[in-house]
Design a protein that fits this description.
- It holds the Pfam family TadE.
- This is TadE-like domain-containing protein.
- Keywords: Membrane, Transmembrane, Transmembrane helix.
- The protein has one domain.
- Helix 1 packs antiparallel against helix 2.
- The protein is of the alpha+beta class and 141 residues long.
- The termini are far apart.
- The chain contains 3 helices and 3 strands.
- A 3-stranded antiparallel sheet has the order 1-2-3.
Length: 141
C-alpha cells in the first residue's frame, strides 16, 4: 500500500515568487480621502448657495411688502431690502435690488453672490429671486 502525503496549502502573503502590496493602504486612503473631501466641499458649497437664495427671496419679499404698502414713498422697497440683506451677514454679497411698480403691481428682484467654498462657483451661478405683489390702494365698492 502506497500512501501519499496531503498537498500543502499555501498561505497568501509575501514570500518567494509572490507580489508584495506594501504601501497600498496609503494610496487607497489618499484616493478615497480626496474623493470624500471633494464631496464634502461640494455639499457645503451647495448649502451656501441655497442659503443665499433664501436670503435673496426673503429680501425681495421685504422689498415688495414695503413698496406695495398704501402711499409708500418711492425707494421704500429698495431701502427695506438693503437693510434686510445687511442684517443677515455675509450670506449674500454684491447685492443689487430692483423694485418696479406700475401703480397696480410691484415687482422686486434681488440678485447677488453666495459665499464661495469652491473657486469660481459663485461667479458661475448667480443668486436671484423675484417677488410680485399688488399695490394697496383704495377702490370703489
Amino acid at each position: 500500500m502506497i500512501t501519499h502525503a496531503a498537498p500543502r496549502l499555501r498561505l497568501a502573503g509575501p514570500g518567494p515568487g509572490r507580489p508584495r502590496d506594501r504601501g497600498s493602504a496609503s494610496i487607497e486612503f489618499a484616493i478615497t480621502a480626496t474623493a470624500v473631501m471633494a464631496i464634502i466641499f461640494t455639499a457645503i458649497q451647495a448649502s451656501t448657495y441655497f442659503w443665499a437664495r433664501s436670503i435673496a427671496h426673503a429680501a425681495a419679499a421685504e422689498a415688495a411688502d414695503a413698496q406695495r404698502a398704501y402711499n409708500a414713498p418711492a425707494g421704500a422697497g429698495v431701502a427695506e431690502a438693503n437693510a434686510f440683506t445687511a442684517s443677515t451677514g455675509d450670506g449674500l454679497t454684491d447685492t443689487t435690488v430692483t423694485v418696479t411698480t406700475d401703480g397696480q403691481q410691484v415687482q422686486a428682484t434681488v440678485t447677488g453672490k453666495c459665499l464661495s467654498v469652491l473657486p469660481g462657483f459663485c461667479n458661475a451661478f448667480k443668486v436671484s429671486a423675484t417677488v410680485h405683489g399688488t399695490v394697496e390702494r383704495v377702490t370703489a365698492p
